[in-house]
Structures are given as C-alpha cells and as structure tokens.
Amino acid sequence: MNWSRKSLDELEAFYWETIAPAMDRDGMDPTRDVPTYSWLTERGWSGIAYALREKHDLTPREFFVGVVGLGDEATDEGYDWGIDDDRTVEAFETYLDMLESRRGLADSTLPTRRTHLARFARVYRDRHGSADLLSRLDDRDAEPDEIDRCLAVLDEFDAELATDGTKLKYLQTVRSFYEYLVDFRRARYNPVGNAAKQFRWEQGQPDNRTMTADQVSEVYAVADDLEDRLLVLGLAGWGLRPNELASLRASQLVLSGDDPHIAFEERKNGPGTVALLYGVDAVAARIDALAEDDDWNGALFPSSRAAAGHIARETVNRRFKRLADEAGVTVDGEVPTAKLCRRFWYTAYQAAVDEMLAQLEGVAADQGSKSADVVMSNYLSEERRRSFRRQAMRETLAEVFESADESVSVEEQIAQ
C-alpha cells in the first residue's frame, strides 16, 4: 500500500473501512478506543504512522483523536507547540479556548485546529527565523511584507500537503485565527484574508458526487425490513453522518409536538438538533418493536457484539452498499457509499431553498424589491423562513420515499 499518497480523508476512510472492523473483531470499541502502534504493526498497518508524520505532520494519536474523533476526551494539556514564541502560543491557546467555551466547538475538532496552527507557526519559523506571528500585525506599513511571509508558508503547504482539500482546511483554520485577532482588536489586518485567491485549491477537483432522488428511492425500495429502511432514511432523509446514525439512541429523539427532532449533545461542529421532516412514524415503530425486548439498551441499531452496544460506522456503510448493490444503483460506475447518500440531503435542501426563493419572486415584484433575497431577509422572520424551507424539504423527501412506502406498509415491515 502506498501510504504516502493517501490524503487525510483517504486515511480516515481506511480507518473506518479496514481498521475499525478489525478492532471490533478484537473486542475493541472502534468508535472510542485509540489503536496502539504495536497493534497496528501486528496487522501490517505501521505505514500509516509514517504517512501521518511525514506527509501530514501528525502523530498517530493526533490523527485518531483529532481527525477520526476517537478517545474519551481531547485535551490541550501538555501540548508541545514546537515553537519558542510565548506570545504566539498564548494567542493560539486563547483562540482555542474561545472556540470551545463560546462557540461550543466539539472537543474532537480542537486537536485538528491545534495541529494546523502549530504546523503553520513551525513553517513560518523555519522560513523566516522566528515564530512571532503577532508583532507586525499592528503596523499597516508592514502589511505587504507580512502577507508575503504568510504566502511563503502557504507555498510550502501547497508543495507538501497531499490534496487541495487538506490545503484548504489548513488555510481555513489559519484564516479564522487571524480573523479572531482582528475582531478582538489584537491585529489591524488579516495577512491571509485573501490568500485563497492566490491558489486554485477551491477550484480543485473535490469529490462532489452525490446520489439523485431516483437513486435514493430505488435503494430505499429494496430495503426489506424497517431497520434497513431507517438506515436509508437517516442518511438521505435526516442528513446524519454514518457514525451519528450508528450510535443513535431513542433518548435523543423527540417525536411528539410540532417540532420532532434529534438532539445531539455533541456533533462535529458542536451541540445541535436535526429536524425530522420525514419518517417519524417509521422511527416510532422501530422504537416500539425494540422496546418489546426487556434487554434493549436504547440504541436504534443495537449490537450485542460491539462494546459500545451499537453497530459501527463501517457497518452502516457496508449495509448501505449492500442495499445499493441489490438495487443496481451506481454513481460514476461505482456502488455508492453512505457518504454519497448523505450528500443527497444537502443537495435536496439547497433545491428546497431555491424553490422557496422562486415562490418569493412574485412577492418581490409586488413589493418593488430587487430580488427574492431582499424579501426573505427584510420581510420574513427567521421562523417564517425556516417554515418555508422545511415545507419545501418535506415535500421533496415525500416524493423520494413515499413511492416505496406505498408498496410496503410500516406494519408489514415490522412483521418482516
């Protein structure tokens, strides 16, 4: 295996597709336990440590905790920034503390941000003799030279990092740090504010493939039991990540009232809720069926084999690919993954927003406004805008899933 050619996204996919199932077989929890180097070596995967160190400037633990999201809790204590400029280190730590305490950023994302900042500062030091990122930010006359200094660091990222996506993530972290300094009057300018214009990373070739509504409907139609149907619903109808769906518990679900939703104490971008715009009856039926077992642990996808008590992320992907294969559905000639199914939710939601704007065009004309965007921003409350979006999305999801539901009722699914 050519480890050095793999991007961080590809290494993360390798973890869930190959390493995680092996951990599960060995009695480990692949959603929490961090594999040791010796365990990886015994199975022929020691090359991942080299690739992380040489190509991504990460230790295996930083990767498994910060990128994959394993471990009980990520912590900043004792982190070695690898630079000797105390003011820069203090600014980094203050910024990360703000992300955690005020913006509710999930703990699992903080190590990744920390790694990005540390690498930027180290390369800056190696190129310019010092890791002092702050002293020139108060001097407007120094701005052109400081921009050039930062662009030189990004030039090195451009040469060393594996993919445009990885380069862009580093830039986004660094840009956000400088924006924080400007917002809190600790800097007069952001030296990387327009850096993206100097590179073509955003115009690269990201994997934007997704499934169509017809393809999702076809996969949903071949699911012959309620559990598999909920798996497709969770990805395409609720927009959940595979790991979120795998670990979903009944206690997170609010099915009564006017706003059925799923509550998350922690997601990739912090706490939040996900609206259940379709499939409430199906998930309620699933809970009722599982509750008949006195030993049920509350997981919607329970597993007696896994230490966590629920199926793993890769199990979601494997089951989805099996359903897609049975349906004969392909995307660019390949059987789609759970990730591509989840992307359908985003494309459908964007289409719902476009539909809402189209409906407001007439209102805009009556009001003499230049566009529907003006009407939406100035004349509709956030609650009203949300209602428009959700109704449009609800209709979209109904078109996708109801044709399959007509052939198999919920009661028949439970009986199966």
UniProtKB/TrEMBL annotation:
Keyword tags: DNA integration, DNA recombination, DNA-binding
Superkingdom of this protein's organism: Archaea
One annotated GO molecular function: DNA binding
The UniProt record lists the keyword Transmembrane helix: no
Domain Tyr recombinase: 206-394
Coiled coil: none
InterPro entries: CB, DNA_brk_join_enz, Integrase-like_cat_sf, Integrase_catalytic, Integrase_recombinase_N, Tyrosine_recombinase_XerCD
Core-binding (CB) domain location: 86-182
The keyword DNA-binding belongs to this UniProt entry's keyword annotation: yes
One record GO biological process: DNA recombination
Pfam families: Phage_integrase (PF00589)
Protein name: XerC/D-like integrase
